[in-house]
Amino acid sequence: MRICDLVAKCAKEYSLADFGVLKLCVGSAGIIAGLLVPKKGKTSVLAAASVVFSLTLIPLMLKLIRTANDGKY
Question: Which of 29, 23, 32, 25 lies closest to 56, judged by CA?
C-alpha cells in the first residue's frame, strides 16, 4: 500500500479525538527537536519554523473560511 493511500484511509477512519492526539504527538516531537538545537542555531531554526507555520496555516485558514462561507460546516 502506498503511503498516500494509507494516509487517506487513516483520515477517513480517524475521529476528531484521534487527530487531536496526533497533533499533540507531532507538537511534542517538535518541542523535543527544538530543545536539541544548539543555542547559536536557534534563531535560524525559529525563522524556518515560522516560515513553515505560515505557509501551512494560511491555506488551512483560507479553506476554513471558504467552507464557512459556503455553509458546509
Answer: 23
**Distance between CA atoms of 41 and 22, rounded to whole angstroms?**
28
- Note the pLDDT of residue 72: 57
Residues 6+ apart with CB under 8 A from 34: 42, 45, 49
What is d(CA 73, CA 70) in angstroms, rounded to the nearest whole number?
A: 8
Fill in the DSSP letter of residue 40.
G
Residue type, 14: Y
Query: Which residues, other chains included, contact 15 with Cβ-Cβ below 8 Å and sequence gap of 6+?
Result: none
Whether the full predicted model's pTM is greater than 0.70, yes or no, is no
pLDDT per residue as tens digits for the range 42-71: 888 889 888 988 998 898 888 878 878 886
